[in-house]
What does this fold into?
Amino acid sequence: MMIPTIPTPDELLDKGFRRGKKAADLTRTTKMPKHLKGKRIEEVRVITACQVIKDRLKMILDRVPPIEQLPEFYQDYIDITVGVDDMKQSLGALNWAYGILTQLEKDYAGKIRRAPSEKASGYQKQAYGRIASVVNKIKKDLDFLDFAKANLRNMPTIDFDAITIVIAGFPNVGKSTLLKQITTAEPEIANYPFTTKGIQIGHFEKRWKNYQIIDTPGLLDRPVSKMNDIELNAMVALEHLADAILFIFDMSETCGFPLESQLNLLKEIEKIFKGVPVIYLFNKIDLSDYEKDEEKFDYVTKYVDKLDNVLFVSASTGEGIDEIFNILDKIEKIPHEKEEEQF
Ligand code: GDP
It folds into this structure.
């Protein structure tokens, strides 16, 4: 999401007052009876300052989309990263300031018009004082929006029409190797809250369907029991996207994690992504002889005995990879958003 540059209260006021002065100076050169011109100058000064500040606030309000209209994933993302309530409150405060400035503009323009000419400049000063006080009142909200701008830059671009596959599995099992194998272009790397390496999103098209493959290094690659609430939320946000989980086992255990732990991770992830189909991918077949070591793998392969969604591949040599597309062809979009609209 693109939040425009957020000014400080001083920047807003400087600009408003500078432009007010400019407009007043311009008025000075117009031809008008002197006693009227004096009032006109002050009126123009107040109106211009208000307008300039209001325009800037409106530009910010117009450019930030209403959060409740964003797809669920982005609402979660914003909530985890900066907090949806704080965001709404800050935007609300800008809106409030806009309203007050509109009122001030109207009130003081009227006062100056009706006042005897010697009082005009006093009203103008009063108006500027009130304007400054309103703008300073939204300082913390402007600060917050500036913080949100910095934190929400490089949000992942999600294709909500594509079938979305979320990759999971311990580090070094071959997730990114696989992502590169099956996607056409270089995966996009975007920020993702609480993952140091960000989120990787790859795209490809197969049999006239668009797919989007998501890898989140540092999130779906460690025991859920060790996660804090925020990390759990970051994970749940993915639940709103996933049409299938692609869980990768490294049967060679060269990733450094014993199979038993890998199976436990799978079980945890299945619990969180309830109702999302899982594709079980046994990677690095070039490094292990499954048939010879059958007993060793027994308890894992028995856990996933539905042959439908099981694959034995080597992400690095490409062996068996084509089979993935046959399985993916059966995956359908889960209508996540609609589900929620019913309630
Ligand atoms: P990630 O941390 O899960 O993304 O794992 P990577 O894709 O970075 O892979 C970790 C290491 O395993 C890298 O050195 C890969 O080259 C290697 N690797 C991945 N898949 C295979 C495979 O099928 N066979 C072999 N021999 N090595 C693999």
About this structure: The mean pLDDT is 89. The chain has two domains: 9-152, 163-328.
